[in-house]
Structures are given as C-alpha cells and as structure tokens.
Q: What sequence folds into this?
C-alpha cells in the first residue's frame, strides 16, 4: 500500500489537492520508518472538522498500522467521489456511502474494486457478517467491500406516558388503540392546563422517516418493493397495506388528531413542537426520545416518555413488522485494485478492517479514551467532556464498520431502552428485496417518478384525491417509466437467483 497523505490533511480540501493527495503515480514504500503498514483511507467527514491525533494514535497502536486519512466533507461527498472515480485517484480504502449513485455502481460493476466475499470467513470478526447483510450489500450477487453495518430498523412510536396516565389509557398495542390515544390527546386535556390545545400526533413532511412508512409497516406494506415466489415485482404503493396506511393518516387528519400542517412541517419544528407539549405521539427513530426529552427541559419538565415497537393492525404477534429500506447497509468500505495491488495487500487491509470491528476499537471510535473522554460504570459509558469528544472522537463514529452488538453502551436510560428496542426490531424487519439490485431506469428517473406517488399520497391523505385518483397516479407512474423499472428489477432478480 502506498504512502499518499500527511497525517491529517487540512479540512479545506480542494478537488485538486484531493486528487494529488490520492494519486498513485509515484509509488512509495508500503511501510513507514517503523515498519508498520501504511493504509490510506478516503473517508467522509460528518462533523465540523477532522479529528485530532489523540484517538487516531490509539487506533494505530492497536492495529499496528499507519493510517493516512483524507477527509471529504459530507456536503460535497457525491461530487468529490465522482471526480475521484473518474480520474482513478483513490486510496486503499474508500468509504462509499451512496451506493445508489450511478458512478459508484458503475465502478463497482466494472471491477474497479476487489470482490471480498470469498475472503470474509478467513477473519474472526468479518465472518460474523450475516448472509442477509452480505446479500443486501452485494451488487449483482458480488460483494465489493465490507458492509458498513447499521441498525436494520430503528423506527417506532414515542408517546407521552404521563399523558396516557392522565387520560386513563394503557400503552397501545394496535393501530386502533393508537387511534384512541390520538383522539384522547386531542379531545381531552392530557396536559391538565384546562385548554383544548393539544393533538395526538405531530408529524413532518416526510413519508419515509416520518409517521407514514412506519404506520404502513403495521398494515403490512412491503419495504419499497415486494417480490412474489415466481419473481414478479411490485412497488409498495400498489399494496393493500399502503392504502390502509393512507386511510389511517386521512382519518387522523380529518379528525384533527394530527397537526394540520404536517405536510409542510420540518423535522426541527416537529421535534420542538413535541418538546413544547403541543402533541403526545411522535413516530420516527426510537433514539429520538433522548433528544426530545432534552429539548423539553425547562419547558415540559414533567415529560415522561415510553417507546413502543410492537404495534400491529391485527393484535397478532405473528403480524409484527417494521420497514428497513436499506436493510441496515450504510455503505461499503471498498478497496480499489489500483491501490491494493494484490491478494496479499488485500488480506492486509481486510485484517485491518477485522481489527476495527473489535470491541476495544469500537469503543475508541464511539466514546474515545476512558477517563479522558468518558467514564465507565459496568458497561455503561458517560461522555464527561463533550467538547473534547466532539473534537477527538466524533468524526470517527461514522467510519465504524459495525455499530451493533457490542457490550458497552450509553449510560442514558432512554438510549439504553431505545437501543434494546431497535435491536429487537431486527427480528421483525421487512427487508427491501431490490436494495442490492439495479434498474437503470430507476437510477436515472426514480427520484423524479417518485414525486408522482408522493404528491398523490399527500393529496389522498388531505382529501384532495380519492382512491381512483390515486390509482390513476400509479398508472401515470407506470407509463412514465415505472413499468420499465419493474421489468428491469425482475430481470436483475432472476439473474441473481440463477447464479
């Protein structure tokens, strides 16, 4: 592996500097002066500035490597990666977090990166990557990097438990019971202030990460796409569950059980509204509970939250389901053949990846150094110096190959419970069967075509479109390219099945 970078290049990376930093024309020694392998990493930066060397030095010590990072700001990652791929200016490890990007997918299919599937079982941590994860992260049936393993399904319902007690209702277990809670929170006086000034739900203009998709799961809506035993592919919005979810949202809207401006509400306003006591039901990521409670301090100090992840429309445990559009895949850590020259170098990088998945290094990349950044009681970690943690640790958190299954955890009770429920969700997650497959038409027109369905869904919920009007919009989607997408996905699915 080649030496390309200063220890940490400055944050103000321009494209020319990035390309020269990653360029591979002049081969340098594969090891540093201490004989440690030098591993270059083209990585995405999600924080304000790159980390200092404190935690990096510890990671290098534990992996016996010299790690040379080049950081690309998240806001410009697509442009920078496209440029690097086009010019062949890469690094030993490249963080690919936008697998739907056409340049990325084309590079993967063209053999720019090593296929690593056959090697994973040679390493103790890498071999634990599940078959579902490997399949979901594969392109045309081949795995071209280490999957960045995220939470498979993190969504659920967060409810004001103190309000439930005030209106005398139990924690809901069905969609009908959830509707009753929404009604009571709207029509009664759950906060006890003598005014009718609350609603049940507070939602935002997001049909995926807001309430709609999670509610859809409770009615049996597939995650993005469904595929039958004979290989026929259908989009989620042609399912019965999707229509039932629209009807449910429409009932909430018509009765005033949800904020009437939800279709134009931003996430920030949604969360602040909940924290201010305007509503008692929030549907989204379960770990949002901690942030909601923090926002409520000094405003709603009596707020008591409960998280629910087992709601169904039938009341039957066997019908539990929750969507997982990306199947827990946060991207790939991929290894270009132009930089990782042979199998020996590949195995050296894979060993490094395997080391990063250890509990000790996960802890470093998540919490930092004990008694410097965090304190530990049992396996519960508490950040003790937030500013220092943000400077020296936080930038590494998005680089972890795996985020699940470690003993160490946040000490906050709400975070502990949300993590438990999110892990439990994995057993009931409905995966997107088309996630790793490709439709050229979807790549080119998918976002534009989705607007047809999104607009029709909102119009249906708001009473501006009836069922026939929604179905007409679906036919418009099909005629505008949807039928072609379905045909391409069916062909891609059959091709993988026949391998």
A:
């Amino acid at each position: 592996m080649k030496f390309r970078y200063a220890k940490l290049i400055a944050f103000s990376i321009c494209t020319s500097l990035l390309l020269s930093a990653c360029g591979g024309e002049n081969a340098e020694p594969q090891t540093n002066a201490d004989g440690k392998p030098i591993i270059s990493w083209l990585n995405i930066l999600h924080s304000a500035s790159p980390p200092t060397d404190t935690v990096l030095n510890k990671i290098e010590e534990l992996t016996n490597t010299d790690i040379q990072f080049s950081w690309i700001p998240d806001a410009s990652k697509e442009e920078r990666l496209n440029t690097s791929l086009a010019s062949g200016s890469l690094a030993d490890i490249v963080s690919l977090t936008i697998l739907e990007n056409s340049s990325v997918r084309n590079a993967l299919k063209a053999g720019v990166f090593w296929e690593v599937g056959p090697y994973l079982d040679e390493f103790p941590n890498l071999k634990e990557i599940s078959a579902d994860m490997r399949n979901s992260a594969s392109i045309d049936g081949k795995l071209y990097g280490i999957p960045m393993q995220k939470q498979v399904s993190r969504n659920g319902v967060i409810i004001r438990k103190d309000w439930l007690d005030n209106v005398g209702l139990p924690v809901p277990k069905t969609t009908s019971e959830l509707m009753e809670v929404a009604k009571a929170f709207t029509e009664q006086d759950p906060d006890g202030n003598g005014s009718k000034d609350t609603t049940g739900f507070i939602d935002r203009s997001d049909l995926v990460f807001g309430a709609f998709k999670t509610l859809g799961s409770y009615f049996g809506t597939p995650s993005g796409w469904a595929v039958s035993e004979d290989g026929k592919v259908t989009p989620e919005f042609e399912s019965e569950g999707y229509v039932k979810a629209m009807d449910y949202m429409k009932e909430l809207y018509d009765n005033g059980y949800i904020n009437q401006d939800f279709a134009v509400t931003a996430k920030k306003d949604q969360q602040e509204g909940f924290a201010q006591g305007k509503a008692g039901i929030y549907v989204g990521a379960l770990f949002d509970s901690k942030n909601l409670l923090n926002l409520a301090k000094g405003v709603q100090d009596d707020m008591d939250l409960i998280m629910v992840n087992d709601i169904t429309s039938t009341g039957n445990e066997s019908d539990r389901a929750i969507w997982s559009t990306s199947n827990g895949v946060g991207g790939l850590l991929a290894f270009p053949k132009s930089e990782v020259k042979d199998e020996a170098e590949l195995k050296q990088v894979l060993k490094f990846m395997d080391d990063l998945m250890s509990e000790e290094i996960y802890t470093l990349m998540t919490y930092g150094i004990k008694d410097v950044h965090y304190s530990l009681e049992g396996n519960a970690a508490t950040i003790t110096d937030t500013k220092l943690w943000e400077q020296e640790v936080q930038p590494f958190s998005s680089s972890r190959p795996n985020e699940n299954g470690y003993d160490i955890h946040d000490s906050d009770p709400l975070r502990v419970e949300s993590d438990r429920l999110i892990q439990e969700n994995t057993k009931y997650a409905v995966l997107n069967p088309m996630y790793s497959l490709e439709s050229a038409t979807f790549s080119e027109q998918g976002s534009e075509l989705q607007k047809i369905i999104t607009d029709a869904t909102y119009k249906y919920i708001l009473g501006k479109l009836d069922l026939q009007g929604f179905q007409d919009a679906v036919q418009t989607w099909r005629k505008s390219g949807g039928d072609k997408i379905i045909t391409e996905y069916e062909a891609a699915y059959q091709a993988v099945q026949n391998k």
Residues 467-497 form the longest helix (31 residues). Residues 225 and 379 are 39 Å apart (CA to CA).
